[in-house]
Amino acid sequence: MDSLQNKEESKEILKRIFSYVLPYKGRLAAGVFSMLVHAFLTVFFVKIFKDLIETIIADMSAGSGGIIKLSWIAAFMILIYFLKGISYYGQQYLVSYVSHKAIRDIRDELYYHLQNLSLSFYSKNKTGEIISRVTNDVAKLESSIVKGAVSIIYKAFTFIGAIGYLLYLNYRLTVFLVVMLPLISYILNKFNKKIKRVSRRVQVKIANVSDVLQETLSAVRVVKSFGREDYEYDRFSSENQANFRAKMKETQYGSILTPLIEFVAAISFTAILWYGGYEVMQGRMKPSELIAFFTLLLTISDPLRSLTKLSRSIQQALASGERIFEIMDTESAISAENKGKVKLEEVKGEVIYDNITFSYDRDEIVLKDINLNVSPGEVIALVGHSGAGKTTMVDLIPRFYDPLEGQMKLDGYDLKELDLECLRSFIGIVPQETILFSGSLKDNIAYGNLEANDEAIMAAAKAANAHDFILEFPNGYDTIVGERGVGLSGGQKQRISIARAILKDPQILILDEATSSLDAESEALVQEALEHLMQNRTTFIIAHRLSTIKNADEIVVIEQGEIVERGSHNELLEEEGKYASLYQGQFIEK
Question: Region 373-380: what's the mean pLDDT?
Answer without folding.
Answer: 92
